[in-house]
Please model this.
Amino acid sequence: MLTALFDQLSHFYSGFNVFQYITLRAILGVLTALAIALLVGPWMIRKLAELKFGQQVRTDGPQTHLSKSGTPTMGGALILVAIAASTLLWGNLANHYVWVVLLVTLAFGVVGWMDDWLKISKKNSKGLPARWKYFWQSVIGLTAAVYLYASAQTPAETSLLVPMLKDVLIPLGFGYVVLTYFVIVGTSNAVNLTDGLDGLAILPTVLVAGALAVFAYLTGNIKFAEYLGIPYVAGVGELVVFCAAIVGAGLGFLWFNTYPAQVFMGDVGALALGAALGTVAVMVRQEIVLFIMGGIFVLETVSVMLQVASFKLTGKRIFRMAPIHHHFELKGWPEPKVIVRFWIITVILVLIGLATLKVR
Model:
């Protein structure tokens, strides 16, 4: 929005051309989203408390979590407001990638909102039936996948990039739609499973979003892309602003969500943020690197899958409780220790992911 305005003003004063630089708008995007989250956060938390939008805690979980019952939830709406406002202000709204990722994020947020609302209104932790949640996630994910496939301009946009191997692009054809669908929906659910402790999901999300911003910038710059041996995708550089908005909004939310949390993001935030990361990764052709950098999300998801499979096949559990962060809690790790150690692991994995740019 402001980009178009400054473009017009540049005809009268050339200094406004500085706002055409993606890097400057990304910085402004971070600061704007952060400011919105910090300013609106206290008001939103009070309103959620007044409306009695409190967290419903599982009685079969760690006993230390029972004291969290009633803590305001659906705080993810704060994140989405900050992301949307910042992106609309500083993003290039003529860029279709910006609209696709923003709409996918908000659509998944609506699904999460319905899930949270049912949990609160029915006073239980089940929420939206799994089949309906998965159905709407699938509709949104497939719609985005088909659109991106149909609008692709070059073969590189629908080929699988294998990191650490120079010039290796595997043509996927319509398989691109299948891959995109699983990346978006899978990442959405993975982040949602990780969101079980105060601040556990939001900082890894911020770190991965920041790294994806680097990939977006390089992939959208023809010179850097050629130098690094990665496919050039025209227009994806604008996703830097969107990723920057996630970073700012996430850090602002963490201010209130850090242990002991004043507010939880709920599914409205977790499902949306996961979908956002998956969509950006697909657009910048870094699905495999997302798998690496989001290793904590993958670990949480795999722990649930293994637990369910083991119990159904043998009647025994592998972990004391899944997702795996609860396993460590039940082993006696204090909640802050689990959170910070998972953060540290994510920092390492993100650095490994970024290193794939040069290791070829």
Observations:
- The longest strand covers residues 159-161.
- The first helix runs from residue 2 to 9.
